[in-house]
Amino acid sequence: MRRWAWIAGLAALLLAAVALGGTLRPGGAQGTTTTTGAGGISVTGNGAVSIVPDRAEFSFGVHTESATAAAALGANGTLMTKVIDAVEKAGVAKADIQTSQISLSPQTSSNGNKITGYAADNTVTVTVRDLGSAGALVDAAVAAGANEVSGPALTSSDQDALYLQALKKAMADAKAKAEAIASGGGISLGSVTNVVEGGTATPLPGVSAGSAATPISPGTSQVTATVTVTYAIS
Q1: Does one domain contain both 112 and 167?
Q2: In a domain? residue 200
Q3: Between vectors from CA 121 to CA 141 and to CA 125, what angle results, nearest 5°?
Q4: Strand pairing partners for 58?
Q5: What is the DSSP string of 48-106?
Q6: Judging by beta carbons within 10 Å of its beta carbon (0-12, 13-18, 19+), is residue 196 exposed, middle or buried?
Q7: Which residue has the higher pLDDT, 3 or 160?
Q8: 165/150 same-domain check
Q9: Are residues 104 and 67 in the same domain?
Q10: CA distances from 74 to 83, 102, 149, 152 (A)
Q11: 155, 176, 191: which is the final residue of a domain?
């Protein structure tokens, strides 16, 4: 009989402890979650400045083939040396001539089972700071032995300053859009809380003008900028 009384008392004590624990449980354990939105208006602004490029970048390559690797590479080196000399004589500074690729690879028969010779390639990248001489430069490089030509990539010497102008236009465009949204929604536009920048110069093809040398026309390019701006609202 005493044993049963003891068990009943223990059970009552445990029930009381559970009840008390539920009463004293911290509020954080109730599973309540509060999510607050950042708020604001996010818009994308675009800006562009039109320019006439005054610089050009070309790639001049020499491709040679021979029965042996050494012969192919040797012939290639001889021709590329002539090309570089011709480019320098055309008025390009050494600092504006940079080797961008050298490769040597075996040539195989149609079934791929036999090496029939070797091909060597060498490419230099040349920056032309006087766009008026670009056509004559191309002709000189080809006459010296360049048998692969690519370009021009047209740029401006004022690229950085022009990009800052495009950024200002992009910010003004973003503000105009945000003000229109705020006005249409009947809300007040606050201060800028975040800005994400992005942009690049986008060359537009020009129309070639005839000349004695290879015609190179600068055409027009656009320096563009893009910003994503977040405004607070009230």
Answers
A1: no
A2: yes
A3: 50
A4: 126
A5: EEEE---EEEEEEEEEEEESSHHHHHHHHHHHHHHHHHHHHHTT--GGGEEEEEEEEEE
A6: exposed
A7: 160
A8: no
A9: yes
A10: 14, 12, 21, 28
A11: 155
CA distance 154 to 141: 19
Q: What is the DSSP letter of 157?
A: T
Query: 145 and 174 in one domain?
Result: no
Range of the domain at 218: 41-52+158-233
CA–CA gap between residue 166 and residue 221 (Å, rounded)? 13
**Tokens 């030509």 sit on residue:** 149
Residue 122, phi-psi category: left (phi > 0), alpha (psi -120 to 50), beta (remainder)? beta
Residue 198 vs residue 39, higher pLDDT = 198
Query: What integer is the mean pLDDT of 22-26?
Result: 36
- The total of structural domains in the chain comes to 2
* Two structure tokens written together for 1: 């009989």
* H runs (alpha helix) in 125-230: 134-144, 159-185
Average pLDDT over residues 146-152: 93
The whole-number average pLDDT for the span 48-55 is 88
Are 140 and 70 within one domain?
A: yes
**Domain assignment present for 81:** yes
In CATH, what number is assigned to the domain containing residue 150? 3.30.70.2970
Given a contact cutoff of 8 angstroms between Cβ atoms, the answer to whether 56 and 133 are in contact is no
pLDDT-wise least confident of 53-62, 126-135, 174-183, 214-223: 214-223
Prediction pTM value = 0.62
